[in-house]
Design goal:
By secondary structure, this protein is α+β, with helices and mostly antiparallel strands. About 20% of the residues lie in helices and about 15% in strands. It binds iron/sulfur cluster (2 copies).
C-alpha cells in the first residue's frame, strides 16, 4: 500500500510534510485547481507501511491521522 493525496481535499497546510518521520512528502510547488500547494510524494519507498509490505514490521499512518482534511488515504500500487 502507498499513500495518496486527494487534491480536492488538500489545503496545502504541510502538516504531512513536517510529520512524516522519513520525509515521504515534500512541499508542493504548483497550485492545485483550488489554488493550494498540494505536497508531492517523493520518497514512497521510504514509507514504513510500504516497507511493511516488503517484509518489515513497522507501522505508521501518522500522515493519515494528522491530516485535518482527510485528504490522505491508502492505495494499492
Ligand atoms: S496534511 Fe492534509 S491538507 Fe495538509 S498538506 Fe498534507 S494532505 Fe494537504
Ligand atoms: S505512513 Fe508514516 S512513513 Fe508513511 S508516508 Fe505516512 S507518515 Fe510517512
Amino acid at each position: 500500500m502507498v499513500t495518496v493525496i486527494n487534491s480536492d481535499y488538500c489545503k496545502g497546510c504541510n502538516l504531512c510534510v513536517v510529520t512524516c518521520p522519513v520525509k515521504v512528502y515534500k512541499e508542493g510547488d504548483k497550485p492545485s485547481s483550488r489554488g493550494y500547494f498540494v505536497p508531492k510524494i517523493v520518497n514512497v519507498e521510504k514509507c514504513m507501511d510500504y516497507k511493511r509490505k516488503k517484509g518489515e514490521k513497522k507501522k505508521c499512518e501518522l500522515c493519515v491521522l494528522v491530516c485535518p482534511d482527510q485528504a490522505i488515504s491508502w492505495s494499492n500500487e
